[in-house]
From TrEMBL:
Keywords: Hydrolase. GO terms for biological process: chlorophyll catabolic process. The lineage of its organism: Bacteria, Pseudomonadati, Pseudomonadota, Gammaproteobacteria, Cellvibrionales. It comes from Pseudoteredinibacter isoporae. This is Putative dienelactone hydrolase. The keyword DNA-binding does not apply. It comes from the Bacteria. One of its GO terms (molecular function) is chlorophyllase activity. The keyword Ribosomal protein does not apply.
């Protein structure tokens, strides 16, 4: 846990003590392969580990017969390894957290496999997650049967759109042109289309990716609102919490986070009203990197990323407690 902030470690301490027994959070990697698409799927998995494990399998420290599962999806060109700030607290609450890295976008596959155009192939992402869940059911690395019928899905940016697609959101890519002609100066997600252009779209790109195993959903400053069919959102029956930024620097809230909340029945919108930027939902970091001109690691004046994470974790845990 060396990358976690003091604030998050304090929260972990409260969570651990409230469970009534000590948990040691472990993390490991798992490699899967989708032969149909000829596509690798690398997972990062966090879980509460038993200290006295005598099995060749991973031993889960759980009070329930079937441990809960949370899946995670990262933003464009990122990795779930930048979401430790939320993965560890969820694991401390008893979730087996399955982070899915998307091939072509994530650096975990090697920089030689990064293809900026992959960020536009949104239809590949939800399939990565559904297939990962299928394979975990078939070849689980754990000593207990996981609850794979009531899954929490968490996504950041493009990952937020991904988990919404798993809940039933459908894309209409043709909407991008008009939106970006009018909003390119403020909606930086338009840069991906400008730089790579939409690939030739297969029929499956327009279909439904709904996975009925997803029953709860958290979208952190989600992208792709401008190309999502409003009518598809009205059919979502998962419990949904959306985080948006009132003064965001990447995705205008009215076209993305607030748009989703407006059209998803019963969904909740948590709006951060300070100067928080898009990448506040990533782990604290020291890299001198900018994404379309926006610093990945440097927050605006008055923004404390540790505090934002702590407040967000509190809101998320409250949401989950009310929607068990």
């Amino acid at each position: 846990m060396k990358n976690l902030s003091v604030a998050i470690l304090l929260i972990l301490g409260v969570i651990l003590s409230s469970t009534g027994f000590a948990r040691s959070i472990a993390k490991f990697e798992m490699d899967l392969y989708d032969s149909e698409r000829e596509r690798p799927i690398k997972l990062n998995i966090w879980y509460a580990a038993k200290a006295d494990c005598n099995s060749e399998l991973k031993c889960i420290n759980s009070k329930t017969e079937k441990p809960k599962v949370a899946v995670m999806s990262h933003g464009a060109m990122g990795s779930v390894q930048s979401m430790n700030w939320l993965a560890y607290p969820l694991a401390a609450q008893g979730y087996v957290v399955v982070g899915v890295n998307h091939f072509g976008e994530s650096w975990v596959y090697g920089r030689e496999n990064i293809n900026p155009a992959a960020a536009l192939k949104l239809w590949e992402r939800p399939k990565d997650i559904s297939i990962a869940l299928d394979k975990l059911a078939q070849q689980s690395p754990f000593d207990q049967t996981l609850d794979l019928e009531n899954i929490l899905a968490v996504g950041f940016s493009s990952g937020g759109s991904t988990v919404l697609a798993l809940a039933g959101a459908e894309y209409q890519y043709e909407l991008a042109q008009k939106h970006c002609e009018e909003n390119a100066s403020t909606d930086l997600s338009c840069r991906y289309t400008q730089e790579s252009h939409l690939p030739e779209l297969p029929q499956e790109a327009y279909g439904s990716f709904k996975d009925h195993r997803i029953t709860q959903l958290i979208a952190l400053d989600p992208a792709a609102g401008h190309i999502t069919k409003p009518e598809s959102l009205k059919s979502i029956d998962s419990k949904v919490l959306v985080f948006g930024l009132e003064n965001g620097d990447f995705l205008p809230i009215e076209h993305h986070a607030a748009f989703y909340q407006e059209h998803i029945p019963g969904s909740q919108l948590e709006t951060l009203k300070g100067n928080e930027g898009h990448f506040v939902f990533q782990d604290k970091c020291q890299l001198d990197i900018k994404v379309h001109g926006i610093p990945l690691c440097e927050d605006k004046s008055g923004v404390n990323r540790d505090s934002t994470h702590a407040r967000s974790i509190g809101r998320i845990m409250g949401f989950l407690a009310k929607n068990q």
